[in-house]
Input
Amino acid sequence: MRVRVGPVQLLLCAIAIYSVFAGRLAPYPAIREHREFPFTPPMRLHWAGFAGVYYCGLQSAGAWRGFSEDCTRKWQLRFFEEGRLVQPAKEGPFFLLGSDELGRDQLSRLLEGGRVTLSAGVAASLLTILIGLAIGIVSGYRGGRLDDLLMALASLFLTCPWIYLLLGIRALLPLSLPSEQSYLLVLVVAASVGWPRTARLIRGVVRSAREREYVTVARSLGASEWRIFRVHLMPELRHVATAQFAVLAPQFVLAEVTLSFVGLGIGEPGVSWGTMLAGLRDVSILLPYAWMALPCIPIAAVFFAFQWVSRRMQYTE
Amino acid sequence: MKRFVARRLMQGALTLWVVSVVGFALMSLVPGSYFDEARLDPRLSPQTVEAMRNRSGELRTLPQRYGEWLVSCFAGEGGYSVVYQVPVLHLMLPRLVKTAQLATAGLALSWLTALVLGAWSANRAGKHAAAVADWLTSVLAAIPELVLACGLMLIGLYAGLVREDNLTIPALALGMGGIPALLPQVRAGLRQVADAPYLELAWAHGIRGWRFTLLFWLRAAANPLLPLLGLSVGTMLSSSLVVEIICGWPGLGPLFLSSVETRDSHVALAVVLIASGLLITANTVTDILQAAADPRIRESS
Output
C-alpha cells in the first residue's frame, strides 16, 4: 500500500517530531517547582555578543508584591548540555515565559503539555475513526435491523450538544484518577462523543459505493466481496477517513483542553495545555498575571494549522 | 401540514424520552454516589447520611426510581437535588433563564453579523467585503471559544467592563465564536439564489437597497439558511458552557459542572435533558419552518 504524503501526513510528522524533542527543548522538567518564585513575570534575555546570552537574577519587592529583575546578578545560559537545548544556571531560575503559582516554568510546561494535548487529540481522532469505520462498515454492509439499531444509537448521541455529552459521559467515569489513567480516560470520552458522526459518514460512503455501477460490474464479473472492498471501497474510505482526521483532531484537542480546564481531564501532576489553563477558571488572575493565558496561543496555532490542512485537502480533491 | 407537525413533535418527544431513560439508567448504574462523599463529612452523622440516602430513594430498584423521577417531572419538580436538598427545577429555572439570555444574545449577534456581512459580500459589488468575510472567517475559526472568552475577559478586565450581570463580554465571546460556522454558509446560500429569475425580476422592477435584500433576497434564501438555525443553536449551547464558566455567568454550565463533580445525578440529568430538549426543539422548529417554506419537503417525508 502506497502512502501518499499529503498535508495531513505532513502535519502528523511535524507533531510527532515535536513530541519527540519537546522534552529536550524545555529548560526544566515540567513538574520542577521553584516555590520561592511563584507568578514570576516573563524574563528578558540579555545579549552579550559572542560571550553568550545572560539572564538576570530575580528580586522580590516583598511578599505578594511580585518580582522584578535585578541585573547586579547575572547568569549565563548554556546551550546543548546534558541533552537539553538550554541549560539555565543552578543558582537562579530562568523563566522565559514566566512561572505559575508553584513557580513552575511556563515554557517547559507549554512544551511538555503540548505533547500530551496534541497526542491526545491525535490518538482520540484515530480511535474515533477506527470505531467509526468499524460501525459504519458493519452498518453499511449488513443493513436491515442492525443498521437501524446502530444508526438510531448514533442519532441518540447526536441529540445532545457535544459538550454536555462530553461532560455527561465523563460523569459516568471515576472523577479523579492518576494522570496516566486520566489520559486514557480523555481518549475514551472523546471517542465516545465523536463516533456517531464519523460512523454515519462512513456508512453513507459504503452504501453509496455499493450501489455504484462499476461495483455491480465487478460483482457480475465474479469479483469476491473482499476484492470489491479492497479495490473499490478502500481508496474511498481512506480518503474520507483522512478528511475526517483533519476535522476531528482539532476538535479533540479542544475536548482535552476543555475537560482539563474544568478539572475533569488530565489530573495533576500531569501537564497539558488544558491543565495549564485551569487556573483561569478564576479569571481575575489574568489581570496581574496575563502570561498564565499563554497556552491560548499554541491552541489557536494548532487550530489554524488543521484549518489550513482541511483547506488544502479541499483544493487537491 | 398538520400531520407533518404532529409527527415531528411526536418524534422529538420520543427522542427526549429515550434520552431520559438511557441517561437515568447510566447515571444510576455508575459506581459511587454523593453519599460516599457525605459520609466523610464530619458535620454529618452516619444516621443523617443514611436518612438522606433513604429519602433519595437510592435503595429502591431502578425502575421504581425512574418511575418516581418521572412522576416528579410531571409534578414540575424534575427530581430532587441531594446536594442542595431542593427540587431540581427550583435550582434550574433561574439558571436556565440566564443561559437562554446569553444564548439568545450570542445567536442574535452571530446571525446579524453573518447576515449583514454575508449579504454584503455575496453582492456582486462587494469585492472587498468578500476579502473581509474570508479573513474574519479564517481568523475566528482558529480561535476556540475558550481562548476567545479568555482574551475578551482580559480586554474587559482592563477596560473595566467586567461586572456582575454584564452580558457584554460573554455574549461577544459566544457571538464571535458562532460567526465562522455561519458566515461562509450564509454567503453560499445567498449566492446560490442570487441569480434566480424572481430576483432578477424584482431587480428589473427597480426594487433596490434594503427592501430588495430583506424582502426578496433573504426570503428566497430562507431554504438553504434555515437548517443552519438548528445547527447554530446546538453549537451555541455547547460553547455557552465554557463561556459561562470563564466569564462567571451563572447559567446552566457551572451548575452542570458542579453537579458532575458532586455526583448530583438528578441535576446533571436534568441539565443534559434540557440541553438536548433545546436542541431537539430547535431542529424540530427548523424542520417545520422548512416544510412551511417548501411543499416538496412536506410531501417527501
Notes: The mean pLDDT of chain A is 87.
